[in-house]
Design goal:
mainly alpha; single chain; 2 domains; Arc Repressor Mutant, subunit A; Rna Polymerase Sigma Factor, Chain: A
């Protein structure tokens, strides 16, 4: 086994579960998360020779995963429009009908509230709240300043509080 394979196998071992959950929170689909994780690891494998160590391996892998996931969601948005639907309606349906969801009504409502956030705020909220990444790590992944991320996260929290407090659950 060459060094590239060793590094790749270690990346898969170290990040598979966390990456799957990161993707899953964006796409609200067990199957889509599985498929995307495979695509992400294919991208990581292909890009591994070009990794120069200018960023941490973790943030480099997370950037690939986030970009791949956001590209997937953009394609889903187009597909939904062609079906005369909206991606929000599709995601809402996924949250409601997910056979793998084992959370409480409050957790389901939180997922719905996060879904209503604009893309940038949703991205920051997921990475900060659920992935427990620092603002510095999120900044490295997204290329957004720490100050802007803090502002986006704060606004996202306020929107989620407002949405959840209006909920009849």
């Amino acid at each position: 086994m060459d060094s590239r394979e060793k590094v790749f196998n270690q990346i898969v071992k170290d990040y598979s579960e966390r990456l799957w959950w990161h993707v899953r929170r964006f796409v609200n689909s067990h199957e889509d998360a599985d498929d995307l994780l495979q695509e992400i690891f294919l991208k990581v494998w292909a890009a591994l020779p070009s990794f120069r160590g200018e960023s941490q391996l973790f943030t480099w892998v997370w950037r690939i995963a986030t970009n791949e996931t956001l590209n997937h969601l953009r394609k889903e948005k187009v597909r939904a429009a062609l079906r005369f639907s909206t991606i929000d309606a599709e995601m809402e349906r996924r949250i409601q009908e997910d056979p793998y969801f084992n959370g409480t009504a409050v957790e389901r409502e939180l997922a719905r509230a996060v879904l209503k956030l604009p893309e940038k705020q949703r991205q920051v909220f997921i990475m900060r709240w659920w992935d427990d990444l620092s603002y510095e790590e999120i900044s490295s992944i997204t290329g957004t300043s720490v100050g802007a991320l803090k502002a986006s996260y704060h606004i996202a929290q306020e929107k989620i509080r407002a949405t959840v407090s209006e909920s009849p659950f």
